[in-house]
UniProtKB/TrEMBL annotation:
Keywords: Endoplasmic reticulum, Membrane, Signal, Transmembrane, Transmembrane helix. Residues 46-131 form the GOLD domain. This is GOLD domain-containing protein. The gene is LOC113585287. Pfam families: EMP24_GP25L. It is found in: Endoplasmic reticulum membrane; Membrane. The chain crosses the membrane at residues 203-222. The keyword Transmembrane helix applies.
Amino acid sequence: ISPLIEAVDTYQNQTVKDLRPDVSDQELFWGADQYDFAIVLPATGLDCFWHFAHQGERFYLNFMVQWVTGLANDKHLSVIVNAPSGLIMSSVDDAKGEIAFIAGETGFYQMCFSNFHNHFGSMQIFLNFGVYYEGLKDFKKEEEIKKEEEREHLNKTISTMEESSNRLQTFMFHMWRYYNIERMRRGTDYFLLQSNSSYVSTWSAVQGFVIIMAGYLQLFFLKRLFDIKPTTETEKPRC
């Protein structure tokens, strides 16, 4: 994974001087808590995205290689997640994986995906990443926490309903993540079936052509064995 680390370091040195003026808005993710989409990496390609996270939020990234084209069929993908300060938070080198951690600082977290294992083939990757809160009290001031505790004492019913709704929302969010992982697996199986169908069709056509040509050559040589030249007074058949 060292080539990816060197490439990421070079990329960071070029962009750390300014607030990434050369990066488009499509690569900087600000508002929503989760994103899911697919990208295509060319041979030995490197693509990076940035997602904003506050300190204390939980950052997660799920990825899966759906298909690989070209001469090489290595599905290993190298992934590195860097903190805003440049510290490497986590790295994975596999066809699919999950990265999750609690953000230690506020800023843009960089996700880099490298296809340096394949020098002659591209790959399609499905990504699912974002941030979410484990608790609502982590970012409140002490005075607000005291007021919240007093309100909870005054009305325990509302507090219980609020806690239950937050737990339900967290469970629904995790169910949505599991649904996306299952959708990635189904997409991988679909592309694998397409690849196998194309492989079988191609080789069936090639084998059919080889069989027809072999029959034609056999018939041609058999006819040559029975090729009799007409006899004349000067040219007579020889033993």
